[in-house]
Amino acid sequence: MSDAPQYPVTDAVLEALAITRRGVEELLPEAEWTKKLARSAATGVPLRIKLGLDPTAPDIHVGHTVVLNKMRQLQDLGHQVIFLIGDFTSLIGDPSGRNATRPPLTKEQIQANAETYYAQAKLVLDPARTEIRYNSEWSEPLGAVGMIQLAAKYTVARMMERDDFTKRFAAGTPISVHEFLYPLMQGYDSVALKSDLELGGTDQKFNLLMGRHLQQEYGQEPQCILTMPLLEGLDGVEKMSKSKNNYIGITEPANSMFAKILSISDVQMWKWYELLSFKSMAEIAALKAEVAGGRNPKDAKVMLAKEITARFHSAAAADAAEQDFINRAKGGIPDDIPTVALTGAPLGIAQVLKAAGLVSSTSEGLRMIEQGGVRRSGEVLADKGLKLDAGEHVLQVGKRKFARVALS
């Protein structure tokens, strides 16, 4: 950008830079991004901001929305967001963070996942200011000749600098040639879209830098890259993930979402505020100061839980979830518990708990009774040999699992 006209870095540009930098891991190169922001402010031409997602799973959790929140902040500054669905790159399979070749998905799986994924992403992004693209648009027409020409623009030595390839090579773990094509194709997306900024998780840095390299190879102004930290899950240790069962799905019920957010630690709460809240950093700093001055941190956590629950449901649902949580804390029984019809009375309590979906096995049910974690109509059950007669029984396991069992 050295030959480009110099545009003034106004207060508005500095404010946009501060919003861009909020919660980010890296913004590279920051000086180039500042120049792009200044040019956009002076000319009124929005910047093109790209997020590429391989729809390898249909559902997204709160951890995935960290990067979507950043996209929304940039949309609110007036820039053009491109939600790129990697239907072509999904057929290759992203080797990032893998210690083995990942099996590619079928076109049908990709299409189904992509539709669900975007329907959920719209809960964060402004659909009116979001361009949806599929990278098969330009990747399939490349053909064999185009693919070979593209591969000629990068060396094997540079490709092997990538951390996961280095480790796998050293360990003697197979690396298929097609895996080298993935970062090349992701980088080529930036060329096709004339991207000004590409976002991704910290594990995507190599692929994002590939986009910069290829844009220069094709004579374009290179994109800047922005990486967001990976959000730790409910345990506060591992990154949020379904496989670790420490996640909050953005389509799960409001009551469950609210209660899970309240379960995070007081320390972890502030990182969630920075990455997930739409409050300004000044508002968050003021709230943090109030807590440091003696305000109950639970107040701040309730505010966060209500904000996030309202985003994915509604303000009324968030209020109802708060009331439900209060009722449960007092030992009350929520209104919206599922009803399960069972036959074969009298039935052993552990068997009923399993059949009602409150525990995964009868042995877990017996263990929960032993630990005092099972209630019937609010009363703790201590008898592992208890058999329930015909009739209606309101059962509770732990703090959040309830079922109304109609036994006959």
TrEMBL record:
ATP binds at K242. Catalyzes the attachment of tyrosine to tRNA(Tyr) in a two-step reaction: tyrosine is first activated by ATP to form Tyr-AMP and then transferred to the acceptor end of tRNA(Tyr). Homodimer. It comes from Roseateles puraquae. A motif ('HIGH' region) lies at residues 55-64. Its EC number is 6.1.1.1. One of its GO terms (biological process) is tyrosyl-tRNA aminoacylation. This is Tyrosine--tRNA ligase. The keyword RNA-binding applies. It is an enzyme of class 6 (ligase). It holds the Pfam family S4. Its main location: cytoplasm. A motif ('KMSKS' region) lies at residues 239-243. One of its GO terms (molecular function) is RNA binding. Belongs to the class-I aminoacyl-tRNA synthetase family. TyrS type 2 subfamily. Residues 347-408 form the RNA-binding S4 domain. NCBIfam families: tyrS. The keyword Metal-binding does not apply. It is found in: Cytoplasm. GO terms for cellular component: cytosol. SUPFAM superfamilies: Alpha-L RNA-binding motif (SSF55174), Nucleotidylyl transferase (SSF52374). Keywords: Aminoacyl-tRNA synthetase, ATP-binding, Cytoplasm, Ligase, Nucleotide-binding, Protein biosynthesis, RNA-binding. InterPro entries: aa-tRNA-synth_I_CS (IPR001412), aa-tRNA-synth_Ic (IPR002305), Rossmann-like_a/b/a_fold (IPR014729), S4_RNA-bd (IPR002942), S4_RNA-bd_sf (IPR036986), Tyr-tRNA-ligase (IPR002307), Tyr-tRNA-ligase_bac-type (IPR024088), Tyr-tRNA-ligase_bac_2 (IPR024108). It catalyses: tRNA(Tyr) + L-tyrosine + ATP = L-tyrosyl-tRNA(Tyr) + AMP + diphosphate + H(+). It comes from the Bacteria.
